[in-house]
Amino acid sequence: MKIGKRAEYGLRAVINLGIAGELDRARVTASDLAACDNLPLKFVEQIMGDLRAAGYVDTKRGRFGGYFIAKPLNEISIGELVRFLDGPLAPISCASQTAYQPCSCADEAHCGLRMIMIDVRNAISRILDRYTLADVVGVTLRKIRRNNASHFFMQDTTAPAEATRPADPADPAEGFLAGLLEDGK
What we know:
Layout: H1 5-22, H2 30-36, H3 41-53, E1 57-60, E2 66-69, H4 78-86, H5 112-130, H6 133-146, H7 176-182
Antiparallel strand pairs: 1-2
Helix pairs in contact: 1-3, 1-4, 1-6, 2-3, 4-5
């Protein structure tokens, strides 16, 4: 499964809203959300409008206005957000629970490709549905603090922090599950 830019940017924005909230920044402008991860502002505004219409975020107008998470972080699963932003999790439509479409296979009930793709869908779903926005925000902030790193919303200025990259970006030790295990969850 590969999520699209809409889901990637939406997840980044919502996670950053959660981080900002945990850092006592009540509301965040779309321009700050875009600047935080070098995202296109117009696309972020569009995504945030959709997230607002769906009840995930809300806004307050005015001088100190901006976006904020509309419900408790622990009530928003990452899987729920991915499905909202990007659609079904299944890699192929005949393995989807929510957007099933028959494939061209002559015997779908005994199709090896479909069976393995159902397992892939189930594995992805179990992981994404297991974790909430609160989990991701918490693990992210703990890792930032443990590494004495900085985040856009920890700074007094609106300039983005110096980006850091792991030596091996695919190292399992850099993953979310490793961050949870470090914290004994």
